Amino acid sequence: MDIPITQSREWQNLQEALGEQSFLEKGEDFQYLAIRKTAKMANYLYLPYGPVFSNKKGFDSALESLKKLANTKNISFIRIEPLIEEAVEFLPSNTVKSVDLNPKETWILDLKGEEKELYDKLPSRLLRYYKNAQKKGIKIEKSHNPKDIKYLITLQSELAKEKGINTFSEKYLKTELAQPFSTLYYLKYKDQETGKESIIAAGLVFDDKTTRYNLQGAQSELGRKLHATGILTIQLIMDAKEKDLKNFDFWGIAPEGAPKNHPWAGFTNFKKTFKGKEVRHAGTYDIVLEPTRYRLYKTLRRLNRFIRRNS
C-alpha cells in the first residue's frame, strides 16, 4: 500500500503539535490516521485521504475498526476520503456525500527516469525564465525555520484580500514548517537599478517517501510580472528529482468540464502546462453513526454559512 503523508505517523506528529487528538491504526491490509474533531452538535473522526487499503476486505476491516473506535470516543460520524476512486463502490448504506475537503482531482508529474525525460515534461517557456532567473536578480532560498513562514503569510494575505479567500493561521503554518517533512521556498528579488530587495514568491512543500506535495504558494504583483511562480515550481520539481522522489503532486485542479470562471481555473491551466496526468480520488464522504445528531450538525452548518454570506 502507498501511504500518503496525511495518513502517516509524521502527520500524526503534526496533529499532536497542533493540539489535536488522533489515532493511528494498522492492519494486515489497511492503515488509517483518524483525527477527532469537535463540532457543535456532533463530534466526528476525520481521515484526510484515508483510510488506505489494499482490497475490499481491507476497506471493510478499516471501517469496522473505525466504528469500534467511534463507540469509545462519543463520535456521531466518520468522515473519510479514500484515495482510490473505486472505493465509492464499497461504501455502506449509511454514507452521505460531503463537500470535498482535500482536492478530489489533482495533477501528478512523474519524476522517474532520466533527467532529460523530466526536462521534456517541463514547459520550455518556464525553463527559460528559470535558467535566466539569477541574471534577472532573482535568488531562490529554502528554509526549515518556522520564523521564515512570514514570507508566505505576507504574500498569502495580499492574495486573500484580492481573491476573498481564507488562509491558515500563523500558528498553524509555523507548526507545519517545524515538521521534518516540510520545506519553505521563497524567491528574493533584487532590483538591479535601486538595489532594493523584496520577496516575490513563496511556497510550502511536504515530502514523503515517494512524493513531493506542492501544498501552498503565493506571489506578489511584481512576482507575476517576473513569472515567479513558474520559476519556483521548476525549482521544486528539480529538487524533488534530486531527492529521488517518484512523483510531484500539484495538489488540486478544477474538475473536468468546470466552467472558465471556476476558482481554480487559472491554477489548473498553469499546472497542466506540465506534462503530467490527472489523478482522481474518491472524494469526501460521511459515514453516519448517529442520524439525529448528524442532521442537527448539517443544519447548523448551513445556517452558519447563510449568516456569513449575508453579514
In short:
With 311 residues, this protein is of the alpha+beta class. Helix content is 35%, strand content 27%.
Describe this structure in words.
It is a single chain. The protein is α+β, with helices and mostly antiparallel strands. It has 2 domains: 128 residues, Aminopeptidase (3-Layer(aba) Sandwich), CATH 3.40.630; 176 residues, Gcn5-related N-acetyltransferase (GNAT) (Aminopeptidase), CATH 3.40.630. Helices cover 35% and strands 27% of the residues. It contains 10 helices and 14 strands. Strands 1, 2, 3, 4, 5, 6 and 14 form a 7-stranded mixed sheet that branches. Strands 8-9-10-11-12-7-13 form a 7-stranded mixed sheet. Helix 4 packs across helix 8. The longest helix is centred in the C-terminal third of the chain and has 20 residues. The protein is globular, with a radius of gyration of 21 Å. The mean pLDDT is 94.
Number of domains: 2
Query: What portion of residues is helical?
Result: 25-40%
Q: What's the helix-strand series? A: HEEEEHEEEHHEHHEEEHHEHEEH
Q: Overall 3D geometry?
A: globular
Q: Largest sheet, described in full?
A: 7 strands, mixed
β-sheet strand percentage: 25-35%
Distance between the termini: 47 Å
- Tell me which oligomeric state these chains represent: single chain
The CATH architecture category of the largest domain equals 3-Layer(aba) Sandwich
Quantity of strands, as a count:
14
CATH class of the largest domain: Alpha Beta
